[in-house]
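User: Is it possible to get a 3D structure for a protein together with its bound compound? The compound here is zinc ion. I've pasted both below.
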Amino acid sequence: MGDQVDDRQSRCHARPDVPQHCARPFVAADPTARRACIAGWWLGVQPRQKGRGNGPAPQAGLALARADAQSGRVTDATDQTVLSLAALGWTEALGDQLGPDETGLDRMRVATVHRARMTAMSAQGPVRLLLAPQANTADYAVGDWVLVEPETHRLIRRLDRNTVLQRRTEGGGAPQLIAANVDTLFIVTSCNDDLNPARLERYLALANEAGTTPVIVLTKADQVEDPQPFVDRVTGLQRDLQVVTLNAKAPEAVEVLAPWCGPGQTVALVGSSGVGKSSLLNTLADKAPDEAQATGDIRESDAKGRHTTTSRSLHAIAGGGWVIDTPGIRTLHVSDLSVGLDVLFAEIAELAPDCRFRDCTHAHEPGCAVLAAVAAGTLDQARVDRWRKLWEENRTNTPVTSGPRGNKTTLARGKRY
Ligand SMILES: Nc1nc2c(ncn2[C@@H]2O[C@H](COP(=O)(O)OP(=O)(O)OP(=O)(O)O)[C@@H](O)[C@H]2O)c(=O)[nH]1
Ligand SMILES: [Mg+2]
Ligand SMILES: [Zn+2]
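Assistant: Yes, that's possible. Here is the predicted structure of the complex:
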């Protein structure tokens, strides 16, 4: 034992059994930092060959033991923790959802969703899920927890979500799922002419409604002499709003965002095209050039991007935690909001109970506490105008169903999704 030298530190973390496999070292101290190696292997799982179809990923080369139902730890043949489920974001509340006959199933997080196929991140690395013929992939969001049959990778069922980000697109239909089980929403915008506070308010409403913590991330701070004027334009959009500035392409961005990242945490990047979401993801995930998310130039005339990213995907953050990249949204319409607007416009929501009429629109009604505050100079009229615009848009876009006594109600909202 004593004369055996552990040289794994200098070996590829994905194939520590193969000397000089590639240049990415083994990271024993921080299992969450593991990711596909330069050669494309993931903890013993062979990369898929280009052009050979997308069959289920081959079983891990190591004889992988099953997840221990109680601790959520996953071990490999040598009884080493490969990647704990807690590092993937697993929580006790999720464990409560498991039936007695489900403890033998693998727990994975949906990593990509396409029309006819889905991949998931397991404790042993990425796998392609086997879908039932009638499965509708639109019912799944990146970040979802799913139960999967260990040998076949057959998708058995999705667990209830802690949070879900969703939006209705033009033309109606069911809401489109953006991401699930997200702790923090990074609302990305740049220090340039494209910055639009009214647009950011829509993202804030989305984050509030989902129950995620919003953070405004101002990218391209390296392209302006002083980013402070841009910070000033967004700080007052919501009470206690956190705003950070960074260069999405510089390694220092990792430190700036560290308070919201870390083992078990999931963040998502949203915002217009060209603001630097994918650039930031590549920095957070410390992607090698051959595995990086594609990024694209913006037009010089109006600083708008060209919709480079076209699908949502989940990636491991180098220092622990998970980050979801999303395509740029052209127009974010608001709908299905209940608390989302009240959190965004808390100063208005707090005054509303003092209005004489319960359904006061704060436009012309006598005894309106909001109008009184505007007249007294303690509330900004522009905020009230923006609140009304979103409130009316939300009312128009949110389908109503009949309540038990035939009264109109908005869609029922439970704690679970
Ligand atoms: N100088 C500088 N350039 C940046 C920064 N962030 C992004 N860029 C550049 O801006 C362009 C757009 O970046 P992307 O990361 O592709 O933007 P995106 O938000 O992912 O865009 P979509 O995928 O189209 O939604 C690229 O040319 C990036 O190199 C930054 O902080 N500083
Ligand atoms: Mg992108
Ligand atoms: Zn009122």
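The first strand starts at residue 106 and ends at 113. Residues 277-278, 308-309 surround magnesium ion (ligand 2) (CB under 6 Å).
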